[in-house]
Amino acid sequence: MKHVSVNGLDFAYLEDGTGPLVLLLHGFPDTAGTWSHQMPALAAAGYRVVAPYLRGYAPTGIPLSGYYDKATLATDVAMLIRSLGNGKPAYLVGQDWGAIIGYAVLAAFPELVRRAVLMAVPHPVQADKSLLEAKHVHRSFHWWFFQMANLPEKALAQNDFAFVDYLWDYWTAPGHVDREHIAEIKKMLREPGVLAATLGYYRAMFNPQKWDPGLEEVRALMKRPIGVPTLALCGAEDLRAELMVDQARHFTGEYRFELIDGAGHFPQREKPVQVTQLILEWLQKDNL
User: What domain range includes position 254?
Assistant: First the structure.
């Protein structure tokens, strides 16, 4: 475990290999350990692979300001790349919240990313279209449930974080078992202040009062089309795949979308060999 201080916060991260920087961003409920299948393979292929724990996810610090808006999260990643990238742009891979942040980084800070792979979450314009569709509201019920005060924290922690087991079972393809990894997620969520911090991401989604007022310029840049070469991946068993199929119009640069058969929301865990190969092929196109 290594640490770096950026954007006023101590970030913990996992690291493997040497070479061009590949930054791997996890989602919820998850940890940087979600990339355990990809990190050795990417390192063996000649990359320096860094998987940070996002702000508020222990052992990364919990910010005193309490800001978890997308502009803040994108600024975190931009500063991580500047600090860890030796002055060069990085490759960016993100899933779930890591993808949400990734779209923002690619639009606001395109000079910092060479190529990107974003998984399991559609472009924000596509996601906005789903907010009033019953099936997508049902699929993403937690977005609304987590807006409540106090009750979500209690519900998540109840019965040894059975809520986490429920989400992973609901979101993954039938038959996927990941007990050791989920146990690590629960261990992380038990750390003081972490549960409220992770829910802070959702509570900032629809409430501008929870946004850092000093980042309006970043928010404006986040609305731009994306020119960074991007591979979008989604499990075929994930309902959100239908939102990602036709999102190419939001990209002005090289873009490709791939469905991962037999996978749900966590393709990096459910189909690790296939996903790792797709990531490697996409990154290595830089060398052709």
Answer: 2-287
